[in-house]
Amino acid sequence: MAKDEAPVAGVDYSRLIVAVARAADRDAFTVLFGHFAPRVKAYLLRTGSDDALADELAQEALLSVWRKAASFDPSRASAATWIFTIARNLRVDRFRKEWRDVAVGDDLPDAVDEAVAPDESLSGDERNERVRQALRKLPPDQIKVIELSFFEEAPHAEIAKALGIPLGTVKSRIRIAMIKLRALLDELS
Fold this sequence. Notes:
Layout lengths: L12 H11 L2 H21 L4 H18 L10 H21 L18 H19 L3 H12 L4 H8 L3 H22 L1
Helix pairs in contact: 1-2, 2-3, 2-4, 3-4, 5-8, 6-8, 7-8
């Protein structure tokens, strides 16, 4: 068990993941699910997901634990670190998927696609404009990490290298920027 993982009632969660990997041990998975699912959901709620999305992503994260248990290496990460990383990555992937079409600059097309219903186009244009307005209010260093991470889909390690800053700083800037964006978008709606 890794140093940063405190066992609850003597449970070694890393060994449980290994049991799932080796023998598809349903009892081990039940213990993992019972312990981590509510904690992952709480984490996702704290990061801004609504209740339904947090519940969905928590379940998806634990399902990934079942499917990917063989790739878990207890010498590289604790069970908790591995599971929460899966959950974080699922959340980031979901965010990227939902925001992929949002433009950062003022270069939205002037013509409306005729295949799109007018009311859908209007709400999309309004959303894009609100996002652009909110992004303009962020500090330049936060705008840069958001653009690289979400619009150029660069991994955090590449962003750190490109900007010459520590990986932790990249993650902090993204987290702070997302909190600010969420608040700004609430104000603009």
